[in-house]
Amino acid sequence: MLRKSLQNLQEHSRKARLLSGETRSQMLRALADAITTHTPYLLAENAKDCEEHASLLPPSLAQRLTLTEEKIETLVAGLRDLAAKPDPVGRELARTELDEGLVLEKVSIPLGVFCVIFESRPDVLYQVLGLALRTGNGVVLKGGREATHSNRAMCGVVQEALRQAGYPCDWFLLIEGRDSVDEILRYDDLIDLVIPRGSNEFVRYIQERSRIPVLGHAAGVCHLYVHSSADIAKAIQIIVDAKTQYPAACNSVETVLVDASIAATFLPLLHQALLKAGVRSRGCRETCDLLRISDTVKDTEWSLEYSDLILAIKVVSSLGEAIDHINRFGSRHTDGILAQDHAVCEHFTSAVDSASVFANCSTRFADGYRFGLGAEIGIGTGKIHARGPVGMEGLLTYKYILRGDGHVVATYAGESARRLLVRPIP
Amino acid sequence: MLRKSLQNLQEHSRKARLLSGETRSQMLRALADAITTHTPYLLAENAKDCEEHASLLPPSLAQRLTLTEEKIETLVAGLRDLAAKPDPVGRELARTELDEGLVLEKVSIPLGVFCVIFESRPDVLYQVLGLALRTGNGVVLKGGREATHSNRAMCGVVQEALRQAGYPCDWFLLIEGRDSVDEILRYDDLIDLVIPRGSNEFVRYIQERSRIPVLGHAAGVCHLYVHSSADIAKAIQIIVDAKTQYPAACNSVETVLVDASIAATFLPLLHQALLKAGVRSRGCRETCDLLRISDTVKDTEWSLEYSDLILAIKVVSSLGEAIDHINRFGSRHTDGILAQDHAVCEHFTSAVDSASVFANCSTRFADGYRFGLGAEIGIGTGKIHARGPVGMEGLLTYKYILRGDGHVVATYAGESARRLLVRPIP
To answer: Residue A1: its pLDDT value, please?
Structure first.
């Protein structure tokens, strides 16, 4: 059943891919209009979900589940932004004249069909749908169980609006149930990319089972290294910001590494600032001695992600030790150095393996919106395809188009072979 | 044991990654010099392999196993070419001023460590080693059993030359034995990309077992579609070239689709040309009737890769049917249209899902060298990362570097939030 629906989706999204960028902009505006018109209906359906589940959820999750007029206005504004963006599909990435009349073009195209698995946070649905439409992709949406009424209503409004205006509406599919996730992960012939958004355990679960490439991060163990040349006041401000501005975020700092030469002066100042901000410190033996705290971090605990007002602190003897520690215990998400010495910063940013490497600023900047990517589809910690905060470009790939006029390879082989020109066209 | 070696390799390749582009050019020239100096030794070691195995191999494979002075000269010239190429590492891909003094840079970096599994074709070893060095990657080389002496000698010459000149030489590792391949495919924490080169069965074996991303193609079922507007003479020339110029190549054509409106006139002409070129035709029922041949292609046989002087022919009723057939039975490798109607060509190149889509030229052009990519590391038929003929860019990824001066996220949040500028720097 599900496989059949996905085959259908693949087929329809192949057709929808041929729509022009201008048509896709019109569709995005039609969605925005329909959502505005149907706001009362969407809020009413969301209220059913909240009635059923909100009281059973922790406050932060209940808040995520709840749609408000303001949230919907923000979503609509996001769709209008996307409608105004230049078409990312069909962009010429390179052009080469291989020979007279034989021109090679490398052109951006949609990936095909991607699947986003998200939590009970219904606003994600329209963000993802908008990105899929802007990039010409088909999309499978699997939302959280608690948002069932909301998700169905949101998809229904969009489907109806597209159908009424005579636009294709079979390029997205809402699926439900945990079993369907397990099934989908096997269909690498029908889905080109899976983007899981949720707990670390959930992302790891997907990564381990999927035959389809996965874009995401199972952990955000971010570091800040304080070099001996650091501006102390700025360093403390940055660490406090990176830890406390949103402790549950994946780009919050979990471990601070401090150069041994400044540990005795720096650590007490940092500790004071952390205490004031409500942060509990743990540390290596040396840190614990210096700060007179007792919570020692075990060797196996350096890759813990606290996602809370807890910070691990370690004294390191050198820049090299800091880099090695990060490359070993980090999650390749976001790591930074605090140093005034420019050469030291450059060495650090070259040598650390992570998707985002920062100097003298908070790790919390690692975010698609702050990076200017527009909407963010996810943050990837792998090496392949897109990594770091990923916007629309993660939903695109490319193809080579070669246009000739009867050209055959035999001309360029053998004794009297003609040479290919291979001249890049700027 | 192997895991320990790979951990070592990862560590050393992290250090080697910091070498400047100029140093890597010097190392490439040092390799070229050493290989030239030790040509007699390399030929002698290769002769041992040939003595042991050549008589047991089919002639084409025996030829691939054999090193010659000319082959070595070509390899040396290839390394000198790479030495002269601009450094692909550390290129600025984008630059954005997020706010005053807070500048985001997207920069090209090596993938890390990749693994190439190749057949008993020792010249591949130096091509891969050169690409790894130019792109700053560590590399695991697994060559064919029959080339054991050659592979060891080739690696030994390079290692000795680098060591003597005081360059790092621990960024590559030669491994042997099929078991080690199975073991390596589990180590997704140590290897970033696997590139299998060999039979379709072998590539599929790797794809099915690997926890590491795989770049490659398990099949090359390439199509040419002859539209009613085709230039008949050119179409026949292109089909004969695409089938016969190197039938065992993955970019040779396997199936020709012919528009029904021209089938009766076109097919007999094509058949004649194919017969003259020694090609045996198989076909759909209509083709068999028209050509009075009896070898009917069964429905399940349309995705066969013959890799031989055999061609499957099918009459289709429309452009749409041709596109659907290719997207269904093809391998997303290389597919082409033969048509004088420009709009038809454009529709075809947009709608066909393959990595390379051609109009009015031979599928045999799908090749990294012909595309002007320099050396080709493989041809990918997936959608993720690099696809089509892949050169150096498939061995690179990127990172984001953000340089600030004490910037914290709190400044941009809450009531009196400052707005980020997010101004692209051209």
So the answer is: 86
The secondary structure of A12-77 as a DSSP string is HHHHHTTS-HHHHHHHHHHHHHHHHHTHHHHHHHHHHHHHHHGGGS-HHHHHHH---HHHHHHHHH
Are A359 and B402 an interchain contact pair (Cβ–Cβ within 8 Å)? yes
B362 to chain A, any CB pair closer than 8 A? The answer is: yes
Inter-chain residue contact A361 with B398, CB threshold 8 Å: no
pLDDT at B278 over 90: yes
Quote the domain boundaries for residue A15.
2-215
A248 and chain B in contact, CB less than 8 A: no
Beta strands in A177-246 (DSSP E): 193-196, 222-226
DSSP A211: S
* Structural domain contains residue A378: no
Q: Using one digit for the tens of pLDDT, what is the confidence trace for A135-155?
A: 999 999 999 999 999 999 999
**How far is C-alpha A230 from the chain's CA centre?**
30
**CA-based nearest distance A148→chain B, Å:** 31
The reply to whether B66 and B83 lie within a common domain is yes
- Tell me the average pLDDT across B15-30: 95
Q: Is residue B421 part of a domain?
A: no
Which of chain A's residues have a Cβ under 8 Å away from the Cβ of B366?
Answer: 400, 402
* Domain termination site, one of A215, A233, A260: A215
Question: Are both B354 and B386 inside the same structural domain?
Answer: no
Interchain contact, A387 vs B397, CB within 8 Å: yes
Asked whether the beta carbons of residue A400 and residue B355 sit closer than 8 angstroms, the reply is yes
Model confidence, pTM: 0.94
